[in-house]
Amino acid sequence: MTDQIAIHTDGLTKHYGDLHALVDLDLDVFAGEVFGYLGPNGAGKTTTIRLLMDEIRPTAGSASILGLDARRGSVELRDHIGYVPGDLAMYPNLTGRDTLTYFANLRGGVDWSNVDELAERLDADLTKKVGDLSSGNRQKVGVIQAFMNRPTILIMDEPSSGLDPLIQREFQQMMREVAANGGTVFLSSHTLSEVQRVADRVGIIRHGRLIALESVATLRAKGLRRVELEFAEPAAAAEFETIPGVRDLVVRNHHVAMSYEGSMGTLLAAATRHHALVDIATQEADLEEIFLTYYHDEEPV
Amino acid sequence: MLANVFTKTIRDRWIGMFIGAITLGLLLLMGMAAYRSIDLSIYDSMPVGFRNLFAIPKGASIGALAYGAIYTSYGALTLAALAIPMGTGVIAGEERDGTIGLLLGNPLSRVSVIRQKAAALVVVAAFGGVVLWLAGILSPVILGVTVTGVTLVALTFAMSINALFYGFLAMAISTWTGKRGLGAGVSAGVLIVSFFAAGLFPIIPGWENVAKAFPWYYYAANKPQTNGINWWHMLVLLAGIVLFVAMALIGVARRDLRSQNVGVTIMDRLRANPRTAKIVERLVGAAQVSTVWMKTVSEHQALLIVTAYVMLIMSLAIGPLYNVITGPIKEFGASLPPTLMALFGGGNLSTAEGFYQIEIFGMMAPAAIMAATIAIGARALAGEEQNRTMGLLLSNPVSRSSVVMQKAVAMAVEGIAVGASIFVGVWLGSVIGRLGMSAGNIAATSLLATLIGLAVGALALALSAATGRVRTAVYGAIGVALISHVLNAFLPLNASTEGLTKWTPFGYYLNSDPLVNGMDWWHGLVLLILTIVFVGLAVVWFQRRDLRQRG
């Protein structure tokens, strides 16, 4: 990751009537990074991507890619962009190869040895008509299409849907290679494990608002831990609810489980005030848990 | 309205039928207003054969003429055309949309889906008939006209049955094959050819009975607007409907459902065959995806080939047939005032040019060209949005305006190809029939037909660009074309409104009588400018708006 800004948005906003699909998004994505864009369904991920691709126009604010305005410079920009739309659809009557030929022609040519290599890596069949392919195999054609002209910027809306785990791994490797070569990957996803594995930084969006922007490492280091305590006698929820940093508390008889963010000393001091502690288990929270924590904490806008 | 498949289908379809029927009702009102001002006594002096040809009863009243002109042909064609997509939507439409699996995932049999959708088709067609009937009752009341000798109920009933015939034909073919396009194409072809044949054969001595081979005969021959229902004729159509429903039920049970509709074309077979693969690949495989416009042309190749071929054959056949028509019909045509002839497509039966104008150029030629240009114009942009491919297409370095322009080029290519096939057909017909028509004038008329087709197609493109909705673009363009055509036929009937034809696009197509007088370059220019303006609007409108996520 470098400090060179690849994608920049400034107060980017999109309203559909009363629906505020995206509100005041300020975001910088840097060259050489894989940026994970996470959020539940309907959070505004696809809206952001469609704005970046100039498919739709902002109600307010602006976006720029590689220093060019996403709207005014959109045609010029597309020479450098590879794109996998969400809910990918292609021309059912064309074979995979015909489809790629079409897009290659629109781009003024492409290195076919690269296409063949990508097809091999993803185990894609380009001889069949797209309409006859399963959704996963169709997705492969879409991914090859995005990678085939060696783009500087990759913008992908939930691209791994339908890909099997082995192919997903290869695909993640391909994304890392783009970033390693100084390119930028903007990856929207709700497959958290994927983002965790591949992304450098993560933006979390909910109800059209960006609610967190962290590096994956920082997010993990936030100290959110999964803690399970076993006591000699039954415990009451009230004893733990008031401790700062405790979330998702579940008290069942002698057993207490929670997510906890803060000093372990404070937690243990409070926990042992009334009962004898028999056993303790803690582990680092995964992104999913961290994500759900944010998700639950944020009030709907 | 979402209680079951039956009510959901009605919910999805009634509005199209309603708009179509209301438009026809308004046209009827306009037609009656125009007829009100002319002297009708001349009709009574016409020979019987001539009156039969145009469905004019003895002692014709304003009402009878207006119903005959608007409802009997335009109306019945429109109603049938609205029924066809309902028929193809029964199973094949759900297969194309990928919803059939979900639908049949419920405790519903294939047969039950067909039964419910077929029942909905009947209800919607009947609904169209009722709206037309109401409009038919209201129009003379609004205008203060007394209507005599018209059996309106019989006419609208026959129109609904006629529409159902083509709707169920479409259902049978598309359900049997799983191919929506095939069902729509074949039924539309049968509709047009049979309309044409049922009108033509009765005026050719010795060939009168050939008309009975065509379904339109059983709707129109008895002239339901004046003679009431001929139950034997209705029975023929009903028997056809029963047969089609049976075909659909048998057809759907015997085959695999498609998950997505991918047809195998002749080109696919040739590309797969090792002997032909190389040459076909070079000629077609690479060419069809070389540019946006070439790809668009190739997507519509089936429509183009069928339309061009049918028009070529029909135009050619008319020439030799003209020599067979003799007797009072031909002679009488010469004595009619031109304003009256405008009603019948402006042609005059006493000359070969006039005959060609009535049979080909009056309605068939512009309709065929528009079938191609509207189909491409409407689907060009909105179609890609509906199929969710527009975002991907525009992620390549092509501008929106370039996409619009290339789609316009594809539309022009297909329109010109159909226009050229009409020119070749008419010219060959004239040569074979030794009619001695001027090749230059035929070319001029074909060119003007192509230009009016392009203007209306460009309107469809502009609507498609502005809204992203295929249906809006198709119905909007057809509506404008139909209203413009009817206005151009009726406005000259009244001296005070005659000058207004210059405000309708159709006024620039045949009003200069190009088959006789040759090319009117001003008229051609007006249509060309209209086309350019609509394409320009398409560019501007498409540039401005958000792409739809799903059509």
Task: Report on this structure.
The complex is a heterodimer of chains A (301) and B (551). By secondary structure, chain A is an alpha/beta fold. Chain A has 11 helices and 14 strands. Chain A is 33% helix and 31% strand. In chain A, a hairpin with a 2-residue loop joins β12 and β13 (255-260). With 551 residues, chain B is an all-alpha fold. Chain B has helices at 5-35, 41-44, 48-53, 62-97, 100-104, 110-143, 152-177, 180-200, 215-220, 224-227, 231-253, 266-272, 274-285, 292-299, 301-324, 328-334, 338-342, 352-361, 364-386, 390-393, 400-432, 439-467, 470-490, 514-517, 521-544. The longest helix of chain B is centred in the first third of the chain and has 36 residues, at 62-97.
Mean pLDDT of chain B: 85
Major sheet of chain A: order of its strands? 6-7-8-3-9-10
Low-confidence residue ranges of chain B: none
Largest interface, chains and sizes:
A-B, 38 and 32 residues
Strand/helix succession of chain A: EEEHEEHEHHHEHEHEEHEHEEHEH
Overall, the morphology of chain A is elongated
How far apart lie the N and C ends of chain A?
33 Å
Mean pLDDT of chain A: 88
Q: Using only CA atoms, what is the Rg of chain A?
A: 23 Å
**Total beta strands of chain B:** 0
Low-pLDDT runs of 5+ residues of chain A are none
The tally of helices of chain A reads 11
Task: State the secondary-structure class of chain B.
Answer: mainly alpha
Which assembly state applies to the chains in this document?
heterodimer
Pattern of helices and strands of chain B: HHHHHHHHHHHHHHHHHHHHHHHHH
Please report the total strand number of chain A as a whole number.
14
